[in-house]
Amino acid sequence: MDRILTVVWKVKKFILSFPGLIASTKDRSRSWLGLMSVLLITIYVHAPSLYLGFTGDDFQWWQQARMALDKPSLLLAPGGGYRPVNTWTLSLNHLLFGTKPLGYHATNLFLHLLCGVLFWFLLGRFSLSVQVRWIVVILWLCSPYSLEPAQIVNTRYDLILPLCWLALALIWPGPRESWNRGRLAGVIVLAGLTLFTVETWVVLPAFVLCFDLCLSQIHLRRALLHTLWAGIAPLMYLFIYFLHPPIDRSIYYAGGLKAAAKVPHAWAVFSNLTFLHPLEFPFGSREVLSLLMMGSLAWFGWRRSQPLMGIGFAFFLLPFLPILPVGFMTTRYTSIPLMGFLMMVCAGVRELLLSLKGWQQRVAKVLVGAVVLLEFIANLAGLQGDMIDAQRYTDLHTRLLTEAQAFLPSLPRDRLIVAVRLENENPLFELALDSKGIPKLYYPRHLDPYGLIDWAALLSYVLEPVGGPLYGIAPLDETKTPNYTVVGHIQGGFVILPTDAPTAYDAALIWQNQHRYVRFLKPWP
After folding, report:
1. How many other C-beta atoms can be found within 10 angstroms of the C-beta atom of residue 150?
2. Which of 161, 272, 334, 515 is the most exposed place for a label (fewest CB within 10 A)?
3. pTM of the entire structure?
4. Distance between alpha carbon 70 and the CA centroid of its chain, in Å?
5. Is residue 173 reached through a cis peptide bond, with omega within 30 degrees of 0 on the bond before it?
6. Helix, strand, or coil here: 196?
7. What is the DSSP string of 279-331?
8. Model confidence over 346-403: pLDDT tens digits?
9. Cα-trace Rg, the chain
10. CB 420, CB 520: distance < 8 Å
11. Cα gap 186→35, rounded to integer Å
């Protein structure tokens, strides 16, 4: 018992040694009450997301996670990029919740709230008051531009990555603090975890440089040396990644130089100067103004040695660097940069208020409060529209799942399936044109029913509750079998299609010659 108490005491002492927690515990009751109120409001605002179903890539990520439970090597396999942390957490979700989406969405919301908690404590490192932290954190947690990772199951890696970065910033030593075994172990574990989140982790060396300069405030030469050491792993990762890319680079990185305009465009969107353009990156007067604002704040923070400004600049800019040539920008790309934007604006407004005295300062505080209130109201209005869009998106998938479940009694489960898409519906296009919230970007799957759910993942998902089997994509050398069935998807459901072709491969050629999309599926393993 004494040994357990000693360990607990050491853990408590280690946690309370973090600068952010020390700053936040000067008035513990007010700080915790403020944080709890932020979290409760966020839960209330995001509650509709808990009742959504799986959509889009969720099904394929669920399928890989489910397969990984039978074949553990898949826990480290790529999927839509190298993001195994998704497979790990979704496998755990499946063990706990099966195919019921509620638990998966609750996990995403929990991770979103946890980001808010660490963000709250990080702001405490910079001696911000409870009121200021309340404003900054609630504006991030309840923004349409941080919604996607909190709502879409398969994008939770964009929550786990900022969790790692925020935790690193929290445990990084301050100007008069030294490295100890606890801090070093924490940094190694967190930095190692980022490797398994999403490709954006490769900017970690730049964060090391920023943390050394802004938090530890050490000499530039020493900070650069730390950065070089931190850059070894990302360089090796990039070398292997481009030798064996887990995604089609020719499509994913097709935006070219013009796509780099997403950086000032995002700033303009956050500043309410324009609306988000997911597939276009305009570079007009608003974006030029945004560049001037961003550059002025960064220069001001450097001249005034403002650590909050430096950290904010890193969180805004660095996540964009690996995706500069990507030809689109969904709101999962804006989630972390919004955090940095809010920190930079907060640092600038604080300096402005401190430079004013008397009635000028009071008037300025009233104006700032009014702007914050209007921004929060606008966020809530945007989120309301986004929740409507999300429900309509879910309803499209629910319709397809209902059709698949009705077809199960007719589905043979012991042979190869030639899956043919016979309808030409494009519900995602109609949904994108009639968005009730901010502009959305949907990815149609042209080979799959209604362009919504991958054939193999769809059949695996609806069969799982009744004992399987799981389905995978059949390799071409296995399609010369006569033991097959042709399944077509028409408007309103699935049908068995008659065929007299000698093999599955020959049957597929007949449909392909009629310009139909065809897939080969087989029971797995």
Report:
1. 27
2. 515
3. 0.92
4. 27
5. no
6. coil
7. S----SHHHHHHHHHHHHHHHHHHHTT-HHHHHHHHHHHGGGGGGTT-S---T
8. 999 998 888 888 889 899 999 999 999 999 999 999 999 999 999 999 999 999 999 9
9. 25
10. no
11. 24
